[in-house]
Amino acid sequence: MCGRPRIGILAVQGAVAEHERALRAAGADPILVRDEAGLVGLDGLVIPGGETTTLRRVAGDSGLIDALREARRRGLPILGTCAGLIALADDIIDGDATLVGGLDISVRRNGYGRQLASFETSLEIDGIGAGPMEAIFIRAPIIERVGVEVRVHATYQGHAVAVSDGFCMGLSFHPELTPDPRFHQWLVGCAQAYAKASAAQNKEGFGVRA
Amino acid sequence: MGVADQSGSNGRTGTLRVKTGLAQMLKGGVIMDVVNAEQARIAEDAGACAVMALERIPADIRAHGGVARMSDPDLINAIKDAVSIPVMAKCRIGHFVEAQILQSLEIDYIDESEVLTPADEAHHVDKHAFEIPFVCGATDLGEALRRINEGAAMIRTKGEAGTGNVVEAVRHMRAIRGGIARLRAARGDELYAEAKELRAPYELVVMVAETGELPVVNFSAGGIATPADAALMMQLGADGVFVGSGIYKSEDPPARARAIVEAVTHYNDPAVLARVSAGLKDAMPGIDIGSLSQGELLQGRGW
Fold it and tell me: Which strands, in side-by-side order, build the sheet including A29-33?
């Protein structure tokens, strides 16, 4: 493989340093993204947990949301956790407009309740390594509907909590808060495949990675 | 679905990771003091990552005098209903019954705050006894570690609330960072004496010496009035900022609130800071700390 993939972390607000640490351990070079220019030349992206209203305000005003939509359309590998899952959802149930979109699910913000209902548990994970995984849910969004193209990797009390569509993964919990590296390793794997495909296409004259 | 369902398995609530986790999600954000539902909505629209519900902002507490207490539950509930972002509220230092009431209101974080009049001059609230997480103020590393030992899941430097003067916030952030740097440089066998000096538990002192950081998120508070103030605290190592009187004592609160939010995201980009600082109308007038008597300083409350 051609070195460590460059994986951006959307650094508008939220748990950025935790993803930075996890990505570095998983073999990537993390890059903090605060504007459109920061998205250029990335092999993958993390949209971290935080408040979606803050993301909507700061990133929406600057045109960063439009650039993120374009990156998702291009097929850039993306891991969205908690607020990042909400950002990726095509449908936000409480009436807010779609943020980035590109993942055919319906979510409800704070669907598990307020902070007193935040919890940790152990999940069986399908298709991302073997064995159970510790999962921390903080004022987490609940996935109410999953589209036919979307694969479910884990559920909790009847609701999907880890879903993917190709190189796009959304989680209602926080793998960056536990030592289990599997989801970050998954993203690094996708980023390497994406970088390889982009390099091949660039040779043929397509500027996919730009 | 081909996936083992976890139905029936119970999640564990109120764990340390769940408490500190919410603070981690607030990082890089601005927590704004609000006194009613309308201000809360303005704060949310401006991009605040949480609001602090209270009856009077610190500048007015200062002017009003008398005993400052926990806010009316009706007010806290009205603010809770008005926004979707986390809501915090303050209890008096050591007033564990106010904390019990706030927990029963199902707010998201309790601030055991020196801005209110202390209820106990020897003991802080035993924060381990609560499922709801606490944030506490600190002026130096020892105070921060004592609060963490009592169960605080988040720290904020105290600054001097309600003054619009950032000088004390800077002093306290530098004291904490300096204290951490000192522990980093100490030999292992010196950490016993350091712990004694800091009046902090040895285990926490060792943890800080090894990691070079506090074990919980550390925001800055007390006197932040401009986007530049907020960015200054971020560059000094704050994980985020609390802004109280600085917003609603200024001439154009919504514009100032938005500008401070952007300044915290782009704290290392002077061009953005220049843009968001322009045309904001007047900041809050502010108070020279030297003009306050020792008894008027809030930062000396708590130990």
Answer: A29-33, A6-10, A44-47, A78-81, A168-171, A159-165, A151-156
CA distances from A190 to A71, A78, A186, B171, B175 (A): 14, 9, 6, 46, 44
Active site (annotated) includes residue A174: yes
Are B47 and A57 in contact (CB < 8 Å)? yes
| Cβ-based contacts of B269 with chain A (< 8 Å) | 34
Please tell me which residue in B19, B80, B90, B158 is annotated as part of the active site.
Answer: B90
CB contact A82 to B (< 8 Å): yes
Structure tokens at B134: 């606490």
A210 band by pLDDT with thresholds 50, 70 and 90: very low
CB contact under 8 A, B4 and A124: yes
H or E element, residue A52: helix A52-62
* ipTM of predicted complex: 0.93
pLDDT band, residue A201 (cuts 50/70/90): confident
Residues B110 and B87 sit within 8 Å (Cβ to Cβ): no
pTM, entire model: 0.94
A 10 A CB-CB count for A204 gives 7
Query: CA–CA separation, B285 vs B299, rounded Å?
Result: 20
Q: State both tokens at B71.
A: 């806010």
pLDDT at B2: 46
Q: Does B6 touch chain A (CB under 8 A)?
A: yes
Domains of chain A: 6-203 (3.40.50.880)
Beta-carbon neighbour count of residue B110 at 10 Å?
Answer: 28
